[in-house]
């Protein structure tokens, strides 16, 4: 995933914005393709953590405005959905992000423009993306999310973070979970030294390694353990990917690691776009359900 939000980020020039859109999400470097290659042990087994922030989604109605803001409209990756707040709600102790096949007007439509966010008069799908940006962010620690994804064609749920300082990808991105086109992903990216081009460390594991489509009908726990030296990404305590932060420092004009700064969290359900696949034969609505989000830090991290 990545973040360019007219509502919550600084305005980029149109030229730079178009260049950035064309370069976005291509996790190919350092890519691993099977679960078996990731069944090594965590390096952070001795750390003790304490809870510093959480949302259990126990209230009914919209997500807590003290914890979350919303993205709005077309956002990234030439995705098909229009993001809007009404597609996210708390129900029966869970956050439910609902993707719908429905037509909505694009108020930013400009006939003849090459800007993909403005050249579509309508969106044919709606969904939601919620973020802690501007409200809560963390450096190091553990982020744990219990969630249930929808693994049908064209759907692209994600749990991810972005650094507060700098443009993408210089700010750094951590994909605690992404799913699309039959694979579960655990990624991180940072600057390649070329504008809007990222270096990726990516694990892409076929859903069949976990048990196939029935696995996605259940809730699972995704976790990131993050310290000064590395990021470890898990599902149900199985280690999927380890990103050594030494590879992100001192290269490509990165004087310090983008992962040595506060990151904010995003939860979203995208549709189609550069990676999501074709949703045309998928029955809607589709949902991405989150039971809780919990953030822990060790005494040293605080």
Integer-rounded radius of gyration:
18 Å
CATH topology: Jelly Rolls
Question: Which CATH architecture is right?
Answer: Sandwich
Q: What's the structural domain tally?
A: 1
What percent strand? 35-45%
Spans where pLDDT lies below 50 across 5 or more residues = 2-26, 36-40
* Number of beta-strand segments: 17
Range of helix content: under 10%
Sketch the major β-sheet.
10 strands, mixed
In sequence order, what are the helices and strands, one letter per element? HEEEEEEEEEEEEEEEEHE
Mean pLDDT: 87
Tally of helical segments: 2
Structural category = mainly beta
Organism: Bythopirellula polymerisocia
EC number: 3.2.1.73
InterPro entries: Beta-glucanase-like (IPR000757), ConA-like_dom_sf (IPR013320), Glycosyl_Hydrlase_16 (IPR050546)
Signal peptide: 1-25
Report on this model:
The strands form two sheets. Strands 1, 3, 4, 5, 6, 8, 13, 14, 15 and 17 form a ten-stranded mixed beta sheet that branches. Strands 2-7-16-9-10-11-12 form a seven-stranded antiparallel beta sheet. Helices cover 5% and strands 40% of the residues. Residues 2-26 and 36-40 have low confidence and may be disordered. The radius of gyration is 18 Å and the shape is globular. The chain is mostly beta strands. It has a single domain (14-297), classed as Sandwich (Jelly Rolls).
Task: Reconstruct the topology from this structure.
Blueprint lengths: L13 H10 L26 E6 L13 E2 L10 E3 L4 E4 L2 E12 L16 E6 L1 E3 L9 E8 L6 E9 L9 E8 L2 E9 L6 E9 L13 E7 L3 E6 L2 E7 L18 E9 L1 H4 L9 E12 L5
Parallel strand pairs: 3-6
Antiparallel strand pairs: 1-17, 2-7, 4-5, 5-6, 5-17, 7-16, 8-13, 8-17, 9-10, 9-16, 10-11, 11-12, 13-14, 14-15
